[in-house]
């Protein structure tokens, strides 16, 4: 593939995302413009019609407004000024987005490099904002005008966290000290202007005989507010897509940047003269970026560095060629192996094991180099002939190293099918979304449960609310109705929803607070998404289902990722559970894990844990 085609292929995905974002934004922008033409009634509302605002309405939100604003004239002024400000901000943002659309993106790359992509000490001192950053500042101002922000402003207009003035901050930057700026605190809830508009429209609806404004005009205002918010979110998406594309272009430029000799008129690469000049005025100048500057000119070399650079590149080429030959040989071996017929169910590999000379049969292991050994010999190699750190071993045939975790095991015998493995392929294909292995397994198991018992309900426990959120998204994508008990303010409603509605089959609970004291005998399956360190919490979770009044058998499903910390943790916890079972009791301690156990968890060779 030619370099030009390779470049176009790399940029094609960014071009597609930018085009898609532009198309989605243009449709919403047209809708907002049309609604703007229809929403003039509120601005021209007579103040006489608002004169009885405080006398007629006594709702809570109106009382809050009356405490903040003394009369209706101030309210109408705040609404008019808020709409005007947001309209002006919107025009400024759309003007910047039009500039991004009409100008070739290559024209932004150089300015973006000096501004934020590859900043250096010199560029920071002489920094001039690029078009992307200027538009981003306009977007933040626009965001503040249509959403709720309690405090904080753009970093160009406020003091930083230390309370320093801009002059003091500039002196610190010249000395190489950079402080974090104010954080913008807020969320995408209703702005003050929107709250006032909704309150006024509510007043107008409840006092229709007193005013001349119709419900249609009020609905148009609300539609405009929602459309403006939707347009803003699409503007942010488009800006981010353009930003990523400019960064990708800069990445391509760096990829094709070649080593070159220093020009005669360039400063000394050691920067001794430059640093000496800086240190004369500021002893601590450029302390934070000296190491960065060293790598910014790594592609520029001196004449005396040519032999060492050549030797380095030749060595890297030799290593790469040898690695390529090795990988290519493995590919040919595996392709020939693919053509054999013993890969079918029950087939046997007639090749002999290089060590014991027995036929490999139906089960054998394959190292990274492609050589195969019987399971007994590979176990002996791992136990007795591993490297010093006991994490890798040498192939007896070619002496290449292979980590224990990279050894592949082949088994041509088909495992006995169970009710959870005996699921038709069509059901697996119906799983939607780009899911991780564990989340996909959870959804698959839910499909099997619903297929075998349509009335069965399931509890899903996890220690992490973020993981429960991810599971919730996967359930939505696969049309599995659920309720959750980790959302604040909706505990009782969601609990009743799970208990009473037949279509809600799944309940998501945090293991820390969602299990204690609940009677959930409507469920018969319990999912433990990860190992639980506290045995008492695990028993509490299972006890929500397996208790007096339960008429169905309780099934507990544990989800572990093989060859990870989860599997090692489960082995250690299981060993404690077996010891407790022998003693005829169970522990109520919150933490049974010792320091030795923690060492074993993070040690690859923890197979000796009983």
Protein architecture, described:
The protein has helices at about 5-40, 55, 60-70, 70-100, 105-115, 120-125, 130-145, 165-175, 190-205, 215-255, 270-280, 290-295, 305-340, 375-385, 425-430, 435-450, 465-475, 490-500, 535-545, 565-585, 595-600, and strands at about 145-150, 185-190, 260, 300, 350, 360, 365, 370-375, 390-395, 400-405, 410, 460, 480-485, 505-510, 525-530, 555-560. It is an alpha/beta fold and about 600 residues long. It has 4 domains: about 5-150 and about 190-255, no CATH class; about 260-300, no CATH class; about 315-410, Zinc/RING finger domain, C3HC4 (zinc finger) (Herpes Virus-1, 2-Layer Sandwich); about 425-560, Rossmann fold, CATH 3.40.50. Strands 13-14-12-15-16 form a 5-stranded parallel β-sheet, with helices on both faces. Strands 8-7-11 form a 3-stranded antiparallel β-sheet. It has a two-stranded antiparallel ribbon with strand order 1-2. α1 packs antiparallel against α10 and α16 (about 435-450) crosses α17 (about 465-475). It is flat, with a radius of gyration of 34 Å. One of its GO terms (cellular component) is nucleus. GO terms for molecular function: hydrolase activity; ubiquitin protein ligase activity; zinc ion binding.
Record the SSE blueprint:
Elements: H1 3-38, H2 53-56, H3 60-68, H4 72-102, H5 106-117, H6 121-125, H7 131-146, E1 147-151, H8 166-174, E2 185-190, H9 192-206, H10 215-255, E3 260-261, H11 272-281, H12 290-296, E4 300-301, H13 306-338, E5 349-352, E6 359-361, E7 363-366, E8 372-374, H14 375-384, E9 392-394, E10 401-403, E11 408-411, H15 425-429, H16 437-452, E12 458-462, H17 465-477, E13 482-484, H18 491-500, E14 506-510, E15 525-528, H19 535-543, E16 555-558, H20 565-583, H21 595-601
Parallel strand pairs: 3-4, 12-14, 12-15, 13-14, 15-16
Antiparallel strand pairs: 1-2, 5-6, 7-8, 7-11, 9-10
């Amino acid at each position: 593939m030619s370099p030009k085609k390779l470049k176009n292929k790399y940029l094609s995905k960014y071009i597609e995302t930018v085009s898609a974002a532009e198309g989605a934004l243009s449709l919403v922008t047209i809708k907002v413009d049309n609604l703007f033409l229809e929403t003039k009634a509120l601005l021209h509302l007579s103040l006489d019609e608002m004169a009885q605002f405080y006398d007629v309405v006594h709702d809570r939100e109106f009382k809050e407004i009356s405490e903040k604003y003394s009369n209706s004239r101030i309210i109408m002024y705040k609404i008019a000024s808020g709409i005007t400000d947001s309209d002006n901000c919107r025009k400024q943002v759309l003007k910047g987005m039009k500039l991004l659309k009409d100008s070739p993106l290559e024209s932004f790359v150089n300015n973006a490099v000096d501004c934020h992509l590859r900043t250096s000490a010199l560029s920071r001192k002489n920094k001039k904002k690029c078009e992307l950053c200027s538009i981003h500042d306009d977007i933040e101002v626009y965001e503040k005008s249509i959403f709720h922000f309690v405090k904080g402003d753009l970093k160009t207009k406020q003091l930083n966290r230390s309370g320093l003035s801009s002059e003091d901050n500039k002196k610190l930057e010249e000395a190489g000290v950079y402080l974090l700026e104010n954080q913008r605190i807020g969320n995408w809830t209703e702005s003050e202007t929107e709250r006032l508009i909704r309150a006024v429209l509510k007043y107008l609806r409840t006092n229709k005989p007193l005013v001349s404004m119709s419900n249609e005009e009020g609905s148009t205002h609300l539609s405009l507010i929602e459309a403006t918010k939707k347009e803003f979110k699409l503007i942010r998406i488009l800006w981010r897509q353009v930003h990523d594309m400019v960064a990708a272009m800069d990445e391509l430029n760096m990829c094709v940047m070649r080593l070159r000799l220093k020009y005669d008129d360039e400063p000394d690469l050691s920067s001794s003269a430059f640093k000496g000049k800086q240190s004369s005025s500021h002893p601590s100048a450029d302390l934070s970026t000296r190491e960065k500057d060293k790598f910014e000119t790594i592609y520029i070399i001196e004449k005396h560095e040519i032999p060492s650079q050549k030797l380095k590149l030749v060595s890297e080429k030799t290593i790469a060629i040898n690695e390529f030959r090795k990988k290519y040989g493995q590919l040919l071996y595996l392709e020939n192996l693919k053509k054999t017929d013993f890969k079918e169910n029950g087939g046997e590999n007639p090749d002999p094991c290089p060590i014991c000379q027995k036929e490999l049969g139906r089960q054998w292991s394959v190292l990274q180099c492609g050589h195969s050994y019987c399971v007994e010999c590979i176990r002996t190699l791992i136990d007795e002939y591993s490297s010093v750190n006991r994490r890798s071993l040498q192939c007896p045939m070619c002496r290449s190293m292979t980590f224990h975790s990279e050894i592949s095991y082949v088994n041509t015998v088909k495992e006995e099918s169970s009710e959870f493995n005996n699921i038709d392929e069509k059901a697996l294909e119906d799983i939607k979304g780009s899911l991780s292995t564990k989340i996909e397994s959870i959804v698959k198991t839910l499909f099997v449960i619903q297929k075998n018992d349509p009335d069965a309900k399931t509890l899903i426990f996890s220690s992490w609310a973020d993981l429960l959120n991810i599971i919730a998204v996967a359930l939505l994508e696969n049309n599995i109705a659920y309720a959750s008990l980790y959302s604040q303010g909706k505990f009782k409603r969601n609990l009743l929803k799970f208990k009473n509605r037949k279509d809600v089959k799944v309940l998501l609970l945090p293991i820390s607070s969602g299990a204690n004291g609940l009677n959930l005998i409507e469920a018969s399956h319990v999912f433990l998404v990860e190992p639980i360190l506290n045995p008492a919490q695990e028993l509490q979770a299972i006890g929500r289902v397996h208790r007096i009044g339960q008429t169905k058998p309780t099934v507990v499903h544990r989800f572990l990722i093989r060859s990870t910390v989860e599997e090692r943790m489960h082995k250690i916890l299981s060993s404690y559970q077996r010891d407790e079972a022998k003693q005829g009791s169970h522990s109520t301690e919150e933490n049974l894990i010792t320091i030795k156990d923690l060492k074993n968890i993070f040690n690859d060779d923890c197979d000796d844990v009983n």
